[in-house]
Amino acid sequence: MKEFFKKISFKEALNAVKRLLGWRFFPFITAAILLACYYLSWDLVAVYYACLTAVLMLLLLDDVTPIVPHFLFMNVLVSEKNSPLKLGLLSGSDFYTRTENLAQIAVLICLIIIAACVRIALLAKGKKITPSLIFVSLVLLAAAFILNGVGSNGYEVNNLLYGAVLAFIMLGIYSVIVLNVKLTEKNFINIAYGFLAFSALLTIELAVKYATNFDKILYDGYIHKGGVVLGWGVWNNIGTFFAICIPPICLLAAKSKYGYLFYLYAALLTVCAFLTGSRQAMLGSLFAFTASSIALTVKSRTRLVNAIIFGVLAAAAIITVAVLWDKVSETIQRLLQGIFNDEGEYLGNGRTRLFKLALKYFNASPLFGSGFFAGFESFELVGITDKFLPTFAHNTIGEILGTCGLIGIITYLFHRASTVVGFFRKPTQNKFYIALSLLTLLIICLFDNYIFYLLPTLVYAAMLPFACGKEEA
After folding, report:
1. DSSP letter at 433?
2. How far apart (Å, rounded) are the C-alpha atoms in residues 447 and 394?
């Protein structure tokens, strides 16, 4: 045995690690490990694995595309046993507030930051880099985040800290990715396989949740979303991740010889999004699946089969609605509860009130807003927003207006315009599906807060270069 290890040089071992990290199917290994950690409640093992793997990717890989789907998995590390959530069947653990655990997590996060900075520094050394329009927009947006709440009554240091973290993720992660990836078809496909692995993890966890808590989720003929709570998130979080996985899966449906199988799987993900009971996820997944379906019927390797499947699914939906109209109508009315009042006025399940509150914060401090910690009074996830995150306006425009003011909304709209220009400058089929995934996320963010949640922000920043960059031939 000793002789065997002597024959293996350090360089060969390093190359083997690089090949493993860059392997198209490596995300499935990650999914399997994180699933095991989730059900064994080995949260620190999951955190160590996710963070150290990210560090290795940043330091070893010539092309860091594999880290893009890896950021997805960082959103699902918290087990039910150790979750800080006090919701549904979760009682709220102190695991993530214990000093010994926080210290280890902080060190691991610092290692990722150092690796990212080293990567940028080494690449930029001696090279002339021309800033893109998106980069400039992110610099301005990062500045607006850092300046949130400056000059407002009740300004606190948490505003600066949270804004700085958001700024680093948006600008820093984008810079690392855009400077260290090649926008080739192979890399687009690799990202799509990463989404495939991630969605498989989601599907398994949702299936287990239903199997073990069926009577607490589905009764009286309806899905009671309060029972759809995992350690790392609630029904809205789960449903949103299902929704943004649909377009990348449909990229595989467009490119693969057996694309119709991926298309059927995308339909399954749409069903899973509905099974979370999340209304915003229903809207987002329906949009993502319909837009992807139309694109697949226009251009894909199995276009005819995909078109037939789309037609069959559409016909089945229409027939089901017609036959079960009374039940469907009752379900729709139930879904609309809290969305409109008896006079037909839109309430958004309390979101209208939050938007008005955001306007109040904007009026109180128009230039830089009232800060991220101004407080939005509701939609709190007990154990999360009272310890780690501020409360939010549940609407991107309202959030930025209220917390970052005029400077924030102008820079955000400039950023949005730059991404639109970036996509349409050289639109391709591959870019379309990645951009559609981000568009789905942004539509859902009109009803929620994901691009301010830090971990989903990682995903947004990492995917931007693939949605808006120039694809290589």
Report:
1. H
2. 5
Report the candidate in 270, 254, 250, 280 with the shortest Cα–Cα distance to residue 317.
270
Query: Which distant-in-sequence residues (6+ apart) come within 8 Å of 326 by Cβ?
Result: none
Tokens of 209: 């949740």
For tokens 């409640």, what's the residue?
41
What is the pLDDT at residue 306? 85
Q: For residues 228 and 241, is the Cβ–Cβ distance under 8 A?
A: no
The amino acid occupying position 289 is F
Helix (H) or strand (E) holding 218: strand 218-219
Strand stretches in 16-135, DSSP E: 86-87, 90-91
Do 34 and 49 contact (CB within 8 A), yes or no? yes
> Residue 264 is encoded by which pair of tokens?
């059927």
Q: Which helix (H) or strand (E) holds 124?
A: helix 99-124
Amino acid residing at 30: T
Tell whether pTM > 0.70. yes
- Which secondary structure element, helix H or strand E, spans residue 52, and what is its range? helix 43-60
C-alpha 381/C-alpha 166 separation (Å) is 20
User: Which helix (H) or strand (E) is 222 found in, with range?
Assistant: strand 222-223
Q: Given this model, what pLDDT does residue 303 score?
A: 86
List, for residues 384-419, the tens digit of each pLDDT value: 555 567 888 889 999 999 999 999 999 999 999 999
434 burial via Cβ count (<10 Å: 0-12, 13-18, 19+): buried
Q: What number of other Cβ atoms are within 10 A of residue 414's Cβ?
A: 16
Q: In the chain, count of helices (H) and strands (E)?
A: 19, 4
Rounded distance between C-alpha atoms, residue 82 and residue 46, angstroms: 12
Return the residue matching tokens 């694309």. 259
Q: Which ranges in 184-258 belong to alpha helices (H)?
A: 185-217, 235-255
